[in-house]
Amino acid sequence: MGINEHETFTAEGSSKQYRLHTISLHGSEPDDEAVISCILAANLIPLLPDPLPCPTKKYEHPAVRVLQTEHKGAGLFALQDIPAGQVLLVEYPALILPAGKFSREVYDELGARLPEKRREELMSMANARSKEECPSYVEGIVRTNALQLELDPKGRLPEEEKEFYGGVYPYINRANHSCGPNAMVKWDPARFVTTFYSIRDISAGEEIVKTYVNPALPRQTRLDILEKNYRFTCDCPWCNVGHSTPQELAQIAASDRDRALLGTWIFTHPGYKKWCRDLARADDVVISSYLEALSLSEKEGMHGLQNLFVEEIAMCYSALGDLDAFQKWAKKTIQLTKVEDPVRAARFEEWLVDPPKKMKQWGWRKTQRELSEKRSKKGVSEIIVVDLSDMLGFPE
Ligand SMILES: C[S@@+](CC[C@H](N)C(=O)[O-])C[C@H]1O[C@@H](n2cnc3c(N)ncnc32)[C@H](O)[C@@H]1O
After folding, report:
1. How many angstroms separate the alpha carbon of residue 361 from the centre of ligand 1?
2. Could you tell me which residue ranges the SET domain spans (predicted)?
């Protein structure tokens, strides 16, 4: 017997009230329709966008295919070379639900509410959990596949009522894991879709992989999380290494250290904004630091951070007034941010038209240096305090 939309229920160990809810996005054409079966906290339902967005066309890159692998079940593969910054798939979740544990009936009903074809797609997905752990097969699929998403992007729920939600995607979820991924996902709460996109160049025949864990965590922690949540031993080049000789252990320690460093680089190393204000620092200090970050991220396969690093470098060259170098790094920034942050990418596009004219900070450091040299030749010593708040490209 089904549970109806008006019935409320709770998760194990909680008194919070939830409801089943079906989101139907209707477009003008018959196949412009998306049905998402959800478990939502009762107080979240009134916060959903009203009216709901029109469905975005699903997108599948012509060179992306689901193929069977030897040991990992199905996976996604590139049939042709795909450059960094390309949209690979755009997809609605079939299911949206919170992380808590519900009864078998709730999960079964959640799956049963999908249109038949969508339900078939869902039931063919990987389930790494045993029947004892997850009596409902739908729950097993959820725990093997769900990707985190934000349903309250404007933060309208009080802090104590916030919770994590996940979405299950019959196509995007075919992507297997690597600690050096070549693709990432981005959830768009306004359109209810997730975009899967390349973060580095992918070669024809290569598997398209995302990361299921924070890649900045140490190797053993990553292995433990993957084993506990997804029931496999990661065999990526950073995990599948010998770990008995002192040399091998030193190599693992170095990789752990570099990954942790990369994960906090932008918070622990001086960036463009501070450097720009401080003429006492060498002109190349931030550029060298971020070139090092780029090279480490290449070594560790942490390409997902490179958009931040290339942007810092581009901005430094703008303050130095180096046109060729700025153009080179601004183009890289656009390529690596256009899916993740289109507004930022558009800003660089605009600057690129004529950087010296379009950028307030263009050549600022060069000009200030020349000025201070002139002043010191004249024997004038003064502290230059300049308000750069309006010139730094991006708001704080
Ligand atoms: C989200 S699914 C990925 C798609 C799945 N391979 C399929 O056939 O639908 C997660 C499951 O895929 C498998 N998997 C993912 N990445 C793997 C990897 N690097 N090595 C081995 N198995 C992996 C594990 O069984 C895991 O529980």
Report:
1. 48
2. 62-213
